[in-house]
C-alpha cells in the first residue's frame, strides 16, 4: 500500500473529528471519500496531505510515518489541492503551473529546460495550451480548476489529493474535471484520493468508495458493494433507487427522497 492510516484520531481542541480510522489506499487506484457535511471528509484529506496533525494513530507513506518526511520531500511525492485556491490575481496560467516545480528546486534556483518540458507536459495533459498567457483570475471556473490540477501535475506526484474538485462548477465543467481525473489515473498511473459530494460522480470513477459517518468509517469497498440503499438511508437519510448496468456493472443512483421521520 502506498498510503495507509492506522487507528487515526484527529481533533481540534476538545472536539474529535475523526475517530479510530484505519484505511488503506492502493497505489494506482481512485479512492473517493463520501459522507454528509461535517463528517470529517476534508479533515481526513488534510491529515493525509500532512496539512494537519493526527492526535493519535499514524499515517504511513511508503511504510514510513509521514511526520518523518520533510515537507519538501513529501511534496515531491504527494500533491494536495484544497477546495478554495488563492493566487496573485496577476499570475499567468504558465506561472501558476511552474510553481509545481518548486519542491524539486533549491531556494532561488531557476527552472531549467527539463522543468519547462515537465510544465509543458502538464499544460498539454490539462488542455491549457491556448490559455498559458491568460491570468488565472480571467479563466472560467472549469479552466481555473484545470490550471490548479496542472500545477499539481508539475510536481510529478505519485499521489494526488483533491478536495471537492467539482464544487461550484456547472455540469459541463464538472464532467470535464471528472474525465480529466480518470485520464490522469489511467494514462499517468497517479493514485488519486478525492472528496466528493456527488454519489454518481464517485461511482463513475472510483475503484474504492470510502464512506464516513460522524467521523468514523461506515464502509469502504467497490462502488457496487458500498453504494446501497441501506447506506443511503443510514448515512444520508434518503431513499433512492439504484441501477446497476448488466453490461459493465456501472452503478447510478436516482429518484432521491428524504426519509420520513
TrEMBL record:
It holds the Pfam family ABC_tran. The keyword Protease does not apply. Coiled coil: none annotated. Keywords: ATP-binding, Cell membrane, Ion transport, Iron, Iron transport, Membrane, Nucleotide-binding, Transport. Residues 3-239 form the ABC transporter domain. GO terms for molecular function: ATP binding. It is a peripheral membrane protein. This is ABC transporter ATP-binding protein. It comes from Paenibacillus zeirhizosphaerae. Transmembrane segments: none annotated. It is found in: Cell membrane.
Amino acid at each position: 500500500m502506498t498510503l495507509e492510516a492506522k487507528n487515526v484520531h484527529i481533533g481540534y481542541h476538545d472536539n474529535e473529528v475523526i475517530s479510530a480510522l484505519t484505511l488503506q489506499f492502493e497505489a494506482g487506484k481512485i479512492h473517493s471519500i463520501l459522507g454528509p457535511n461535517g463528517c470529517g471528509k476534508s479533515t481526513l484529506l488534510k491529515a493525509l496531505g500532512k496539512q494537519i496533525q493526527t492526535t493519535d494513530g499514524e499515517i504511513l507513506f511508503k511504510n514510513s510515518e509521514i511526520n518523518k518526511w520533510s515537507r519538501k520531500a513529501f511534496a515531491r511525492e504527494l500533491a494536495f489541492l484544497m477546495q478554495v485556491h488563492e493566487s496573485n490575481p496577476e499570475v499567468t496560467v504558465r506561472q501558476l503551473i511552474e510553481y509545481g516545480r518548486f519542491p524539486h528546486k533549491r531556494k532561488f534556483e531557476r527552472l531549467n529546460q527539463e522543468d519547462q518540458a515537465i510544465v509543458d507536459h502538464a499544460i498539454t495533459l490539462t488542455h491549457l495550451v491556448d490559455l498559458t498567457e491568460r491570468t488565472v483570475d480571467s479563466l472560467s471556473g472549469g479552466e481555473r480548476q484545470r490550471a490548479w490540477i496542472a500545477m499539481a501535475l508539475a510536481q510529478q506526484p505519485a499521489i494526488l489529493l483533491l478536495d471537492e474538485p467539482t464544487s461550484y462548477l456547472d455540469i459541463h465543467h464538472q464532467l470535464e474535471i471528472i474525465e480529466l481525473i480518470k485520464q490522469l489515473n489511467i494514462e499517468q498511473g497517479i493514485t488519486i484520493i478525492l472528496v466528493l459530494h456527488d454519489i454518481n460522480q464517485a461511482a463513475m470513477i472510483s475503484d474504492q468508495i470510502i464512506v464516513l459517518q460522524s467521523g468514523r468509517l461506515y464502509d469502504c469497498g467497490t462502488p457496487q458493494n458500498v453504494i446501497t440503499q441501506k447506506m443511503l438511508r443510514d448515512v444520508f437519510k434518503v431513499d433512492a433507487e439504484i441501477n446497476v448496468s448488466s453490461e459493465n456493472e456501472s452503478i447510478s443512483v436516482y429518484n432521491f427522497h428524504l426519509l420520513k421521520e
